[in-house]
Amino acid sequence: MAKSRGGEAAGGAASVSADGMAAPPDAASEAAELDAKLRRDSDSRSSVGGSSSGGGDRRVDKFGFLVAEDDAPAREALLEEVPLEKLRQRESKWLDMLNNWDKWMAKKHKKIRLRCQKGIPPSLRGRAWQYLSGGKVKLEQNPGKFDELDEALGDPKWLDVIERDLHRQFPFHEMFVARGGHGQQDLFRVLKAYTLYRPEEGYCQAQAPIAAVLLMHMPAEQAFWCLVQICEKYLPGYYSEKLEAIQLDGEILFSLLHRVSPMAYKHLNKQKIDPILYMTEWFMCAFSRTLPWSSVLRVWDMFFCEGVKIIFRVGLVLLKYTLGSSEELKSCQGQYETMERLRALNPKIMQETFLVQEIIELPVTERHIEREHLIQLKKWKEAHGDLQCKSPPRFHGAKAISDSEPYPRKALESTPSIILPPDSELLPKGRKSKLPKGDKKRDQGKGRLANGPILEENGTQSSLNPESTTLHQSKESLSSQESEDTYL
Q1: How far apart, in whole angstroms, are the C-alpha atoms of residue 386 and residue 44?
Q2: Alpha-carbon distance 96 to 90, whole Å?
Q3: Half-sphere exposure of residue 468, counting CA atoms within 13 Å on the CB side?
Q4: Tens digits of residue pLDDT in 285-303
Q5: Residue 258 to residue 254: CA distance in whole angstroms
Q6: SS3 374
Q7: Which of these, 93, 178, 165, 200, lies nearest to 190 by C-alpha position?
Q8: CA 391, 396, 397, 402 torsion-angle sign
Q9: Which of 21, 268, 394, 410 could in theory staple to 474 by disulfide, Cβ–Cβ 3.0 to 4.6 A?
Q10: Element holding 133 (H helix, E strand)
Q11: pLDDT tens per residue across span 245-276
Q12: Quick one: which H or E segment has residue 352?
């Protein structure tokens, strides 16, 4: 799945020619055929959805996807439901975290990680993703930037390609079902803005489903900055023209598979199936076009918190339970059968509860990934020379991104409960302040100066002016008072 120039799409295992890492010709042709089929199916679905958008009542599931009347009960039965009382408790905890974000990120990051693993409450998911990714900070650092990009004309070579891709993104979701509807308009705005923001990178088709998922949870401006963070911090180089970063990560995934499931590794190696054939769509679309939707959201919750290691873990779990036993391999004797199995994964291994638990327990860390990255980078240079795309360093999750912010986080400073006037001095402990006799008599028993602040026991003064407390709040703090808990 290269840039749209070559007609390779995000939806399928693209055949990538990259000086020695090309896929086998027969597998490449199979991948191309699959990609064409996916596009045709998506086109037909979206045209049907678009033509029926003006019809009568449509039934949607809790995620906003259209469902047929006879399919609705079965689909709803498969969804994991969190008890209402537990959901309310989680919402309360997340609200406290979001309103004191800097302190939680600095001192209780492990607790944030645990709560992301349990699942972010749907009503707060969009806001939480902005905070975790650093998109909130990016927006505050660049006021008016998105509006400026939105009003610009854009490069015609990208606009036409983006237009053609709009109806292919989740055509059964109520936001994107209508051609030219508000969902597609916002998607166009976000993708066009990114081509102007990073003209050297332009547009890659895999960015469209990423942006669409973000738009399901937040307005266009916030979705744009989250997309920027994903492209620059979480998955740098993934959407560049030569796909070097995704090829490197494919080799890293394959090497890690040797530790996780030697049988699956041996089988794929024997069949000479290049990782780029089966993991391209998984990684570049962050599994948004692979997993059931409830599992997609749980994976993204953890991905925004912990970084790309979650994407690696998901891929390893899928490979382990698809090709990791002799029973599974009985029906995968050849390359074609193996690829078909990877294209039609068993729904049981993608089920939310099972998959999330396996992801959490899989012992693959950032250190493993970075160590393997150095090994594969060395091999790449020996075979192909230096990378043509100079990507920025990858950040492993919210904590690393937060720590990289250049400005001081004033919100972490302790806020005094007693506010002193500018010209006052704090008396030594044990001494009482002396007041003029008249004032002392006038205010005796009241504990306050006339028309003034409260008089404390040590002679200091506590202001009653509500505006004074704002002087001690960080302007850079991510603590938010705006009501953006829900979007849809």
Answers
A1: 43
A2: 10
A3: 14
A4: 999 999 999 999 999 999 9
A5: 7
A6: helix
A7: 165
A8: negative
A9: 410
A10: helix 125-133
A11: 999 999 999 999 999 999 999 999 999 999 99
A12: helix 352-361
